[in-house]
Specification:
The protein is of the alpha/beta class. The protein folds into two domains: about 1-335, ABC transporter transmembrane region fold; about 360-645, Rossmann fold. It contains 26 helices and twelve strands. The protein has helices spanning about 1-5, 10-15, 20-30, 35-70, 75-120, 125-130, 135-175, 175-185, 185-220, 225-235, 235-290, 295-315, 320-335, 375, 385-390, 410-415, 440-450, 470-475, 490-495, 505-515, 520-525, 540-555, 570-585, 595-600, 620-625, 630-645, and strands at about 360-365, 400, 405, 420-425, 430-435, 455-460, 465, 480, 560-565, 590-595, 605-610, 615-620. β11 (about 605-610) and β12 (about 615-620) form a beta hairpin. α4 (about 35-70) runs antiparallel to α5, α7 (about 135-175) packs antiparallel against α13 and α20 crosses α22. It is elongated.
Length: about 650
Amino acid sequence: MASAHGAMGHDPAGIKGRHIERGTVRRAASLARPYQGMLTGFLVVQLLGALAFLVPPILFGRIIDDAIPAGDRWQLNVLAGIIVAAAFCEAGLSFIERWWSARIGEGLIFDLRVSLYDHVQRMPVAFFTHVQTGSLISRMNNDVIGAQRAFTGTLSSVVSNTIILTTTLIAMLALEWRLTLLALALLPVFIAPTKRVGRKLQALTRQSMEHNAEMNTVMTERLNVAGALLVKLFGRHDVERAGFSRTARTVRDIGVRSALYGRAFFIGLSLVGAVGAALLYWVGAHLVISRSLTIGTLVALGLMVVRIYTPLTSLTNARVDVMTALVSFERVFAVLDLPNPIADRPDAVELDTLVGKIELRNVTFAYPPADGNVLAELGGVPATPPQHDGVPATPEGAEGVEGARGAPSSEALTGPALEAVSAVIEPGQTVALVGPSGAGKTTLAALVARLYDVDSGSVLIDGHDVRDVTSESLRSHIGVVSQDPHLFHDSIAKNLRYARPEATDQELDEACRAAHIDELIASLPDSWDTVVGERGYRLSGGEKQRLAIARVLLKRPAIVVLDEATSHLDSENESLVQSALATALAGRTAVVIAHRLSTITDADQILVLDRGRLVETGRHGDLLAAEGLYADLYRTLVRTDERSGVA
């Protein structure tokens, strides 16, 4: 029906006059290629089901016209048996048709969801810093379902209605063409009202979906740990309830109106059937009285006439329904067609082993702008570099050497994040990256793991340009411990095994002992099976850090990147984490972004960045003697540690 299949979250008024690109239709059809056999079976079953429906009305006519007047019980029994068999046959075909439809539809959902998920999760970090997660998930859920309905709902409905209408009309015309034309003549009287009701229902459905999406966004933001904590700390419960209530009330009112319009739509269809049947019987009865029509034929026509009104009404809106359904395909394809600038090259090689030498050769990099088309639909933000030198912003209140870390520096907004940076990090060295906020420290670390690609110059690992090796093999040799490590809402064991699924229990235990987290795990009631909560909120900052270090140790990387991994820990936790880090860095190349004195002064090499440029490099003593930017930053660190009581 028009209302059921057309209401996909898109306004039919916007569909009117619109043309879907032929490429979209061909591409959508190509998705069904693996299901060609099922589609053929679906069409055959639809045709057989339509023919099976025609058997009872025709045989009822034979019973009335032939078997009863002749008193032929044998013929009556045979015809009744065939009618019952046809009814069972139609029921069985209907079940099979639904099975084919479900297999095709769910198969398409599976294929599209997996393709979308795979494509999106391989996109670079810049993509995720420019889109709203809720909008992206909505695209991956609602539009995929809309595309599925295009096959199993709208298109199958068009095919089914066409088959039913064609076979029924042929049978009715064969029985009595005059009454058939009379039944069809009544249809235009009801088409216009039902179309208006159907379109109004579609618009209401779109509004309902928009407001539901708004409610989902609010719930996603407020009902996680961070959002709930913020609401509590600011005492905004009543305000939140009032805002949510307004949106929910709108959804409720739309639901009531939709129910009334939906009932009006079905009442319209019922009136068509009732009036049409009454008119057919009234005229047909006159024909029977004048002996130009048999009673059996009239009964058969009466049973069939209801069968033609619903398909005809639905097919009048077929174009709008199909166009609306195909819009979902367009939206899905728009995401699938987003280019991935950091995809592996066709001739990319695998990095089997890694010594850990890092070379930066005249590296220049500026953050890519947001795509103004699809990203705008996905809640895209203006094309500015992400906070914290190119990775998602650190938790509120995070501070670096120069104070609060927040938005990037003004220079980063207008110029490159890194410019002509060259350095060599030998295997096994620990290198500290130091500089003011927005200097490019995190950006530099991100380029090593190829989270972004350089604009000019090159980043080499063991002599290989990172663009010439597969991303998977490169990142398998790099371990990262960030300032706020992410943990999944799962058990401790599963979070650890994310680094290496095949790791044994003994290897997990060894990694946790090295990270000084084993005693805590042993003290928990569920031990390894303890669920850490969303983003690990059931653990303290130090516990999360040590668990993240254990995860990196389990990975056994040749290169370790530490992004201010101890910046917000108390003295006791910092001592444990520092001890764990010493184990993690032993024998590995380490790139450390830090402002703790001990980490910086013990480094084999210090790279000092300022406004994207490498301004100083050397060891701690040499840089202090040079009385440059590093000396100024170091004095700030000393004063900060003295005030906080850190040795």
